[in-house]
Specification:
With 504 residues, this protein is mainly alpha-helical. Helix content is 77%, strand content 0%. It is built from 17 helices and no strands. The chain is elongated.
Amino acid sequence: MYTFSSKLKTFSFVLMIVGILGIGYGFLTAPKTIQEVETILKEEEAHHEGGHEAAATHHDAKAESNEETANHSEAIKATVDSTEEKHEVDTATHDTLTKSHTSESLTTAVDSPEKEVKHDSHKSDAHADEHAEHVLHVLHQLQNKPWAALYVACIFFMLIAMGALAFYAIQQVAQAGWSPVLFRVMQGITSYLLPGSIIFFLILLASGFHMNHLFVWMNDGVTEVGHENYDALIAGKSGYLNFPFWIIRAILFLTVWNLYRYYSRKNCLAQDEANDNTYYKKNFKMSAAFLVFFIVSESIMSWDWIMSVDPHWFSTLFGWYVFASFFVSGITTIQMVTLYLKSKGYLENVNSSHIHDLSKFMFGISVFWTYLWFSQFMLIWYANIPEEVTYFVTRINDYGITFWGAVAMNFIFPILLLINTDFKRIAWIIVMAGVVILFGHYIDFFNMIMPATVGDRWFIGIPEISSLAFFLGLFIYVVFSALTKAPLVPKRNPFIEESKHFHY
């Protein structure tokens, strides 16, 4: 039986406490009023104008050269004096012409001020409305920042557990002979699905009750013709994108996923004490049904919880793209937990061939993710349809570092670190690759959600780091607590002996 290390447990609590404090700080410091946003914008404007001080310094330096210019002043003065004599003659002629012109245009001049005042007033009102709309938009973005940071970290860790659960179900249906010695590790990771789902569902409810502005299609009046917030495109999708139907789908998906996780583990534990393979067969049938439900619900989930933060954009490839991201993250987490347990003297039946196979999945699904990323990006960028390409234009212009950084971390690093067969068995190389992959896919989720919720007001600060710390601490605590509740090796799995003696 595994014993939860006191140091690791303390570390998880420290992460959660620091995370809660940072999350609270993020919400407390978020602007609450228009006046606060006005102050922030003025400070930003003053900061930008600070760059003009350098120009002023440059002008001061020019003052020294004015002494040279003084030498030319007498010549200039003489020229001006001669010009003034000519100017007096020209002025007399000009005055005569001006009087004639003035008498003709006097009537028009009387009427024009009223028109100019109306025009200036209309222009001023339009500018004021535009400014007020911009300030309100910035207020929503800054208020979204702690919510979006919490949302990204929450969905990322929940979907890591979901990716491990999907991998576990695939092993059951495939009747794989190499993986049963890893089943309890997979079940430990999937134990996070329940608390992760509860927290995530609460965030969804908060969005539905307008405690944040993560989903613009939930704003008041967006589907009401004539309302100032009316959006024809969102109104056309209101049959699908409406809060009651949306939250019902969330309840259905989260419930079924957690039920499968609960009963599959229950059957696996019962199989240890059984005299036949009844519980194993139940798991086989249940896993097959679950995978059918999963592949449908996963696509809908990606539309509902990620793509709908930007309801004006859509991609038919998006469901597969999101799946590849959290699937490789789940497999990578299985690998990382396995290596940790082996370093502590557990999982004696797990050998370098099991590690090698997990590394192959890490490598292969990373390449698969890259294929989907490039397919989605290339087709949309090449077609250059405004309502589609704006998705990538925003991310390249405002999120260039994280956008291209995700590609480097999720493709280039796995290729360099894991393409060699021998490297797939070396623990420190695998751990390095795993850390890069997991952080890279967190950034991937960051890129999918942040541009539509906080716009160009993003930076990785206290709310983002604290949210990541909290959910990492919770994940460690839940997963390693679950590992203590059952033997790490299934006893009566039909393929357990094959798995123990697996060599590649």
